[in-house]
Specification:
305 residues, 8 strands, eight-stranded parallel β-sheet, single chain
């Protein structure tokens, strides 16, 4: 399946039972809610997916389960976050064998690689697979920036096709467009900058709070794409306090609490993460409850295609 790298692509959470096993029933409930809302792809194994806590077998199960649920309607993309080039090549090969349609790739984990090391890492993995790749550029959280000069070199490989843009510098969207035109697709990776990025020319949105509010997220994308900026802004302004739950070290716990509130998830996390408690939990619940209470009525955004 060719990936167009556009629209809303949820970085979905991994659902766990009370016994700390995969909760595939609730996982299916959430994926079906995403599809019903009109998302354009599903991304597995990201930070929100608690990928660092998953076994290889669990990752395979999540890919195959997702493929069975989506039935070819949208691409299924697996995140690669490894410490070694050898490990990343192996993970990419396994993702393809499991049926993934594409990859999202972080720079090497733990070691702060230099520019040449980082580009070599990405290129070696890209050469090892024919799956399309989206580079995840998040220097704030992962301490390695993929610069435009580095992308110039990376784009020599046809299957490096997109960037999850998380530098927090909104003008970087324009820099990428000016330099690469449509060769490098841009998906905003920061919920609180998503609409701004789309209006500046980003092709899509790798979203977090979509996990709890899929229809509202897709509505914002479709409305702005159709030129209905005022309508998109009205939803986005309502959404912002909730979107801010994504730019927080406890984003997984925050978003899982929101999924509980909308009926499409549980708050079970895998240790060392623990559910929120005390004042922190109270504050997050107040934001979620206020969002639910003031949830806007949505226009028929699906008719805008």
């Amino acid at each position: 399946m060719a990936i167009q790298w556009k629209g809303v692509m949820p970085a979905v959470t991994t659902k766990f039972t009370d016994q700390d096993t995969l909760d595939l029933k609730m996982f299916e409930v959430n994926i079906k809610a995403q599809l019903e809302a009109g998302v354009h792809g599903i991304i597995l194994g990201g930070t929100l997916g608690e990928a660092s806590t998953l076994t290889d077998d669990e990752k395979s199960i999540l890919i195959s389960t997702t493929i069975d649920i989506v039935k070819g309607r949208v691409p299924v993309i697996m995140n690669i976050a490894e410490q070694t080039t050898k490990g990343a090549i192996k993970a990419a090969d396994k993702a393809k064998k499991d049926g993934a349609n594409g990859l999202m790739m972080l720079p090497p984990m733990r070691y702060k690689a230099g520019q040449k090391e980082t580009t070599t890492y990405f290129k070696e993995v890209a050469k090892s697979t024919d799956l399309p790749i989206m580079i995840y550029n998040n220097p704030i959280d992962y301490k390695i920036e993929v610069t435009l000069d580095m992308f110039e070199e990376l784009l020599e490989l046809d299957n490096i096709q997109a960037v999850k843009e998380s530098t927090r510098d909104i003008s970087n969207v324009t820099r990428i467009k000016n330099r690469f035109g449509n060769r490098l697709k841009i998906l905003s990776g920061v919920d609180t900058l998503a609409l701004e990025s789309l209006l500046m020319g980003a092709n899509g949105w790798v979203a977090g709070l979509v996990d709890a509010f899929p229809a509202e997220t897709v509505a914002i994308y479709e409305l702005q794409k159709a030129g209905k900026i005022k309508e998109a802004l009205n939803i986005y302004r309502w959404f912002l306090p909730l979107l801010e739950l994504d730019i927080n070290p406890k984003l997984v716990q925050n978003i899982k609490l929101a999924e509980v509130a909308t009926g499409i998830g549980t708050e079970n996390v895998r240790p060392p993460r623990l559910p929120l408690e005390g004042e922190e939990r109270k504050r997050v619940l107040e934001i979620i409850e206020n969002g639910i209470k003031t949830r806007p009525s949505l226009p028929n955004y699906k008719a805008l295609h």
